[in-house]
Amino acid sequence: MESREAVPHGGPEIDTSVPHSARIWNYWLGGKDNYAADREAGEQYRQAFPGIDELARASRYFLVRTIRFLAAEAGIRQFLDVGTGLPTVDNTHEVAQRSAPDARVVYVDNDPLVLVHAHALLTSSPEGRTAYIEADLRDPAAVIDGARETLDLSRPVALILSGVLGHIGNHAEACGIVRDLMSRLPPGSYLSHNDGVDENPDTNAAQDDYNDSGAVPYVLRPPEQIRAYYEGLEPVPPGVVRIDDWRPDVAGDDVPPAAAFGGVARKP
Questions:
Q1: How far apart are CA 218 and CA 52, in angstroms?
Q2: CA-to-CA distance for 115 and 137, rounded, in angstroms?
Q3: How many other β-carbons are positioned within 10 Å of the β-carbon of residue 84?
Q4: Which of 191, 196, 139, 189 is closest to 165 using CA atoms?
Q5: Which residue positions in the chain have pLDDT lower than 70?
Q6: CA–CA separation, 107 vs 81, rounded Å?
Q7: In the 8-state DSSP scheme, what is residue 243?
Q8: Distance CA 34, CA 107 (A)
Q9: Which of 110, 111, 107, 104 minimizes the C-alpha distance to 120?
Q10: With the CA atoms of 216, 218, 219 and 223 taken in that order, what torsion angle do they form, in degrees rounded to the nearest 10?
Q11: Cα distances (angstroms) measured from residue 185 to each of 96, 135, 152, 165, 230
Q12: SS3 100
């Protein structure tokens, strides 16, 4: 698979010898923004857990459905996507602005390669606005301060956390980050979130091997810990469930259950 092995002149330094989760997911989704170390780690994961491609697509489809709900049904016009990763098909701003051309979207990430390709995210409908800021999930104050330049924080915002809380090794810290971020958003804001769970032995083994590769570890957690992120919020039916069960577009018994849980919830 073709990849971009060189960083544009003057861009941030990228360690191409260490696999990175955003670039591996880009590889699983058929993207080209990945390096040899990412492809090798992705292939090793795939050999241990052949269903990872389906899981990557299920996570993307879940994101699309939740954004569509938030824009078309909940009337949200502002989105804060933290840990966005590399641009691929159906990015948050594309899905949101199909339903609401005036939607404003802020992408947040701390990966240099995402910064290099930020120009791909900085596109918008004429009526809306899209921006990118470099910040870390572990610093909610910096995330919100950066978003304030584009978003009106007196109005509801949808916070998107797609497959990123597993990178926070301590569960209590991960819960605290969600609470901190949501506390800085006004009532009527929403959380859209999903993360991998530890129910599948093949997935667990593949994740252990990945975590030993030198990449930033990702922790698979039991569903009850995933549900803890939503404490104090009002889940939108059907609640915090397996991601392929959250308002599926097409019901299909032949689709293997996704090893990830997520949901959408409103701040009262």
A1: 14
A2: 15
A3: 24
A4: 196
A5: 1-14, 49-51, 87, 89, 118-122, 213-215, 250-256
A6: 5
A7: G
A8: 20
A9: 107
A10: 160
A11: 19, 17, 10, 19, 15
A12: coil
- Tally of helices (H runs) and strands (E runs) in the chain: 10, 8
Find the helix or strand (DSSP H, E) in which 106 lies. strand 104-109
pLDDT score, position 193: 98
CB 96, CB 121: distance < 8 Å: no
Q: Any idea how long the chain is?
A: 268
The pLDDT of residue 120 is 65
15, burial (CB in 10 Å: exposed 0-12, middle 13-18, buried 19+): exposed
Give the pLDDT of residue 111.
Answer: 77
Q: Which structure tokens are listed for 55?
A: 């899981």
Between strands 260-266 and 190-196, the pairing is: antiparallel
**C-alpha to C-alpha distance for 162 and 29, rounded to whole angstroms:** 15
Alpha helices, DSSP H, located in the chain? 21-28, 36-48, 52-68, 92-99, 112-116, 118-121, 140-147, 171-183, 201-211, 223-227
From 224, 92, 109, select the one nearest 158 (Cα to Cα): 92
pTM over 0.85: no
Quickly tell me which residue has 């990123």 as its tokens: 164
Peptide bond preceding 238 in cis form (omega within 30 of 0): yes
Q: Return the bridge partners of 162, or none.
A: 194
Q: Which residues contact 39 (CB under 8 A, 6 or more apart)?
A: 1, 3, 27
Amino acid (1-letter code) at residue 261: F
